[in-house]
Every structure is written in C-alpha cells, then in structure tokens.
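Neprosin activation peptide domain-containing protein
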Amino acid sequence: MKITRMHLSVVQLLIAIMLFLNIDEVEGFSKKDHEELERQLKLLNKPSVKTINTEYEDIYDFLNFYLQPAFDHPLLKNYTYHPQMKPSFAQLKRDKESATSNRSSKIGPRDGGCPMGIVPIRRTTKEDLNRERRFNSIYAGGIFRVSCSFINYFCLS
C-alpha cells in the first residue's frame, strides 16, 4: 500500500486536532499576582515572639497580645486591656479543667503553652490566599444573607 501525500496531510491534521482538544487550561499567576500575594502576606503575618510547627505541619506564630489581627480593625485600633475584663476565678478554674480534659486540641509548645500576654495565631500561607481566591471566583456573588426575626441564615446560590 502506497502512502500518498494526501494521507500524510490527513494524519497530520488528525494529530493536530487531537492535541488541540487535549490541552487543559493551566491556572497560573503573573508576576503582578505574586507581588500582590507577597504584599498581603506581609500585612497578615506580623512579627512574632516565637514560632512553632505543629504535628499537622501548620505554623503558629506567638504574637504580642496587642499585635493580634483583630486589633487591625479600625474600631479596635486604640484598644486597651482593662483590668475589669479579666476572667473571674470560677471561669479560670472551669477553663483549666476543660483544658486538661482535652489535651489533643492544644496549640502551643510542648513545654507549657503561651506565656501571659502572648497569643497563638496560625500563619497565613500563599496556599491559603490562593484557596481564598479560587473560592471567591467560584462563588462570587453567590452568598447572601437571609434574615429572620431571631436568627440570621446564610445561603449559597
């Protein structure tokens, strides 16, 4: 059987079509996107007193109480800790009992936990920001609030 030039052209065309149909979209980020992620990470991750790695490979930074992310909110910028906000003795005792009964969920170093005035905060990673970006692109505008007289509900549409 003699292969003609037309047969070769048809085979080449079929291979080109098959290759074209098998191309999947690759989701990548431009240099500008990487710079934006780095800028967000610098804003979110504060300088820490101490850093630990958990057994689940999460990284926790121990921050000064007043540097925790909650105080980045404009209404809490000049927040001060008041002595009357300290927990009562009964609450401290109850918290200590519940902490000893549930040691598996403890976050902190094995030598005793956080010192006073220090708060453990999970470090935000690029993967966290990418996951958030993908979620927002999939469900953009799809979350809305449904109010009732006594409870708020949230729905995905």
